[in-house]
Amino acid sequence: MQALRFAAALYRARFDIVYHGYVRRDPMSRLHLKPGRDNPYAIYDTVRAGGDLVPTRLGNYVTASYPICSSILRDRRFGVRSSEINGPGAPGDSLDMSFLDRNPPDHTRLRRVAQPAFSPRQIGGYRGLIERSVDELLDRALAKGTFDLVPAFAAPLPIAVITDLLGIPEADAGRFAKHGATIGGAIDGIRGLRHAAELKAASDALDTVLTDLITLRRQEPADDAVSHILAAEGDQIQSSEILPMCRLLLVAGFETTVNLIGNAVNALLDHPAQWADLCADPARLAEKAVEETLRWDPPVQRTARCAFEDIEAGGRVVKRDQFVITLIGAANRDPSVFSRAGTFDIHRTPEADHLAFSGGIHYCVGAPLARLEAVIALQRLAERMPNLRRAGAIRRRNATLIRGPIEFPVHADRRVLTSH
What we know:
Helix content is 55%, strand content 8%. Helix 13 crosses helix 15 and helix 17 (282-296) packs across helix 19. It is an alpha+beta fold. The protein has a single domain (2-416), classed as CATH 1.10.630.10. The chain has a 5-stranded mixed sheet. Keywords: Heme, Iron, Metal-binding, Monooxygenase, Oxidoreductase. One of its GO terms (biological process) is cholesterol catabolic process. It comes from Actinoplanes lutulentus.
């Protein structure tokens, strides 16, 4: 009976989104459908035209304004709530993503446990692994000539790094990529019973790997993040909170970077002159290309905050328990803040910091690692594959909150294979 009620609520909600998106042309509904997957930026312009803070049909607010997004993300009078992040869950199942869906003081306590794994010293120690992984992946890709950028390069790189960080032995990159994409896609909400079953299977599979690892590290501590988390058990983190934190680090460590690399290469190949510029000076321009991608087409497109009290914002009063959906992808193209906001330009001198990694206390803890991986990936790609070109149509993942390609066929002429 519980499963039937869940299915009925799920399909009712889905029909509601389809009706309001395609029939009533509601912008927020369209963001959850194919138009939002194909080109959310056109929908963001519609939201922006409605004002700084726009009411939604569900009684909340949405904003495409950079100043308001930035202010709300940093305002301690707003917070997150797990039900908003996860959407309707499967019967008896709730995907706990640790401090990602916690407010202070729990958020502060749990983030403090995870933070040391992403310290400057720790991140710097991963440069060698990232460089070796990138070159090994490019060796294999170049040997093929034509390859899919996502499973051949963009996905296995962050998986190699995050599984090493956590201390997962003999990680199966393909399996982790599939499970990570399934869980990441569920942040948008569950699309149907089949999707719910896939999510449960993926979550169970990852939890089995992580539970076995936690058991191993209790007996044999090592110099990895899981061992360091376990060292804080009882004092800073409870036993029941360890698995969700490991799950969050694994999924988030994969999702951001794989989509950042995919979006960056997609943008660069769409702008051949800038790809040529990067290839001419990769050591200098790789970092700028990553930052411009984060501004222009970020992996995470939106998030939301719930008001803890009545708060004035954008000329309106946000009531307690109302949400404000902050459209990060729209804020990063706000023409009142960024000149030529809709133009991709790796030579840009930005007028403000982008919001791709959120802001305030929920600023992405893994941002330095994602940046380092993406910069090295783009630099080596430009150095070794200057004639990289498309070999087919890109296919985007079936999600709109997380944006990135799931299939990206490309070709590089093996005759220009360079040494490293």
